[in-house]
Design a protein that fits this description.
By secondary structure, the chain is of the alpha+beta class. The chain has 2 domains: 260 residues, D-Maltodextrin-Binding Protein, domain 2 (3-Layer(aba) Sandwich), CATH 3.40.190.10; 224 residues, Dipeptide-binding Protein, Domain 3 (Dipeptide-binding Protein, domain 3). 28% of the residues lie in helices and 16% in strands. A 6-stranded mixed β-sheet has the order 15-19-14-18-16-17, sandwiched between helices. A 5-stranded mixed β-sheet has the order 1-5-6-8-7, covered by helices on one side. It is globular. The relative contact order is 0.17.
Length: 582
């Protein structure tokens, strides 16, 4: 397998997005996996719920891990223990870097000729398959949560989605196959050109999303992201399903090597295990028991019980791996809630960070192994990251007296109580309790309002109907590296399609201009400065208050010899897991 990292070619000032720097051709094994990795064996995976395998809807770690086995993208991130390498996209189905013309407005991608679908005739993957994958993202009634990245970049994508959303579900497949997105041009069987709304520097990262995967014609016969899709999945990845039960009579799924896949056409996936089994329907406790007994090798989902994670970390158990990147927990300040009269004043909002004891909050999340305090929204692997806090306090413990004084001088009278919106997760419960204790030191009572699932999303993203003053938000980047868009655009863009952090009603034309400037930056230095300036604007306004970065613990069996977490996936790439018995 060759992983020839190529520099992007540019025909204009817009740049072509990041790709790995040029290197001499070397075997992928040497580039992405420690020498100890060896092929063979059966990788046994456990899960609470089996993902559908539909790449268009894969926005959670377990879902992305499965899509890594059975799908491919134009560009992908390698499985490498070094985040500096695993956060830079490389050509996958694409034969090389995109050709960028018309001052950065057109990205032309040529496909590898050897890539095939797992069909009886091993049909070639074509540009039409790429276009079909993008068109499916807006199929009603539940469109892809990742469609926002394409609506924000590709000409005509939003309009296509609007028209498709108005189409009866029964007619959606026919509409997808007979209609086109204006900005997705089929140049030939092996070439597709993307026309952009404006030059941006991260479009290669957008094309590395699972949602950019080609999809075969056969997929249109089944509802997206459904059990039917899974049962009839046509693979173009290194594995294919050989057992996917239609009922509960035979639990579990089995994957074997895909004969239509060739290592020479894939410079990303190692395909180390000979076979993979997935057993679902388990609780986190049951999964952990199987992993520790050696009856399973890795888990797709579910949180490692906090107490057990702490014990394993204290013992320095080599089976425990902590994600080097994570999700940022933040407080969104509601500008239309019960205390809006006070919180709309910047000077009052800017007192709130001093109410927060980030050190105690991180301790409540498991301590430094699993949570790190932060005063910003960008993480260390991201372009523009700098260790800065516009509201520093002694040792990060907060300044209750400063917070109390500011909140006592509001025009409408002292602020002595605020409402906090959270989910019912264990993480949010721990954070809410730590916040309640910290705010109490400043003389402010926090009243917690718990909403679950869709009710939380509805409450958090309706600024005009706010019944809360503060909302706990979890910001998980869709990729890392040049990833400022994944943090700030869902926060700032009123027209964003798809999930977003809690929306407090913050709108700042200057921040929007800074976002555009950061996305158009033509050099790493300029991009870093632009993202840093935008972060200073948003965080400095105290419209969003960063709290901590939560690093997920992952546990694998003693039989696993290599387990490199891919940041954009959120867990290890199963195809790159090496087993001691292999």
């Amino acid at each position: 397998m060759l992983a020839v990292a190529v520099a992007a070619c540019s025909g204009g000032s817009g740049g072509s997005g990041r790709l790995a720097a040029p290197t001499s051709p070397t075997p992928t094994a040497a580039a992405t996996t420690p020498p100890a990795a060896k092929p063979g064996g059966t990788l046994r995976i456990v899960a609470q719920q089996m993902p559908s395998g539909d790449p268009g809807w894969a926005d959670q770690p377990g879902e992305q891990a499965v899509t890594r086995l059975v799908t491919r993208q134009l560009y992908s991130y390698p499985a490498d223990a070094d985040p500096a390498k695993s956060t830079v996209p490389r050509p996958d189905l694409a034969a090389g870097a995109p050709i960028v013309t018309e001052e950065g407005l057109v990205y032309t991608v040529r496909l590898r000729s050897a890539a095939r679908w797992d069909t009886p005739n091993q049909r070639r993957i074509t540009a039409n398959d790429v276009a079909r994958g993008l068109k499916r993202l807006c199929v009603p009634p539940d469109p892809s949560p990742l469609r926002g990245y394409f609506a924000a970049t590709v000409v005509g994508f939003r309009e296509f989605c609007t028209e498709l959303a108005a189409t009866p579900v029964a007619d959606a497949a026919a509409f997808v196959e007979s209609s086109t997105i204006e900005g997705v041009e089929i140049v030939g069987d092996d070439t597709v050109a993307f026309h952009l709304l404006a030059p941006v520097n991260d479009f290669v990262d957008v094309l590395a999303l699972p949602a950019a995967s080609p999809v075969p014609l056969e997929a249109l016969a089944y509802p997206p992201d459904s059990p039917e899709y899974l049962r009839n999945l046509v693979s173009d990845g290194p594995y294919r399903f050989t057992i996917a039960p239609d009922d509960d009579a035979t639990p579990g799924y089995r994957l074997a090597r895909n004969p239509s896949w060739s290592a020479s056409s894939d410079g990303i996936r190692r395909a180390l295990p000979d076979h993979i089994t997935i057993t679902d329907g388990l609780t986190p406790e049951q999964m952990q028991q199987q992993l520790e007994r050696g009856d399973a090798d890795m888990a797709l989902d579910g949180e490692l019980p906090a107490g057990r994670a702490a014990e394993l970390a204290k013992a320095k158990d080599p089976r425990l791996v902590v994600d080097p990147v994570g999700s940022t927990l933040a407080l969104t300040v509601g500008l239309d809630g019960p205390s809006a009269a006070a919180l709309r004043e910047p000077v009052i909002r800017q007192a709130l960070p001093y109410c927060v004891d980030r050190v105690s909050l991180a301790a409540a999340l498991g301590g430094p192994e699993f949570a790190s305090t932060t005063g910003g929204l960008l993480q260390e692997p991201m372009t523009g990251y700098h260790d800065a806090d516009p509201f520093p306090s002694p040792a990060g413990l907060g300044d209750p007296a400063r917070c109390r004084e500011a909140l006592s001088q509001t025009p409408g009278g002292p602020v002595t109580a605020l409402s906090l919106l959270t989910t019912d997760s264990a993480t949010d419960a721990a954070v809410a309790e730590a916040l309640r204790t910290a705010f109490a030191r400043a003389g402010v009572r926090l009243d917690v309002r718990i909403r679950t699932g869709a009710r939380f999303a509805a409450a958090a993203n309706q600024p005009t109907g706010q019944f809360w003053d503060l909302a706990l938000s979890t910001i998980t980047p869709a990729w890392f590296g040049d990833a400022g868009r994944t943090v700030f655009q869902p926060l700032l863009d009123e027209d964003w399609l798809g999930p977003r952090p809690a929306d407090g009603g913050y709108r700042d034309p200057n921040a929007s201009r800074q976002l555009d400037a950061a996305l158009r930056a033509t050099s790493e230095t300029t991009a870093a400065a632009s993202w840093g300036a935008l972060e200073q604007t948003v965080v400095g306004s105290a419209a969003v208050i960063p709290l901590a970065v939560v690093h997920a613990p992952e546990f694998h069996s003693a039989g696993v010899t290599t387990f490199a977490i891919v940041p954009s996936v959120g867990t290890a790439d199963p195809s790159a897991v090496s087993l001691g018995s292999g």
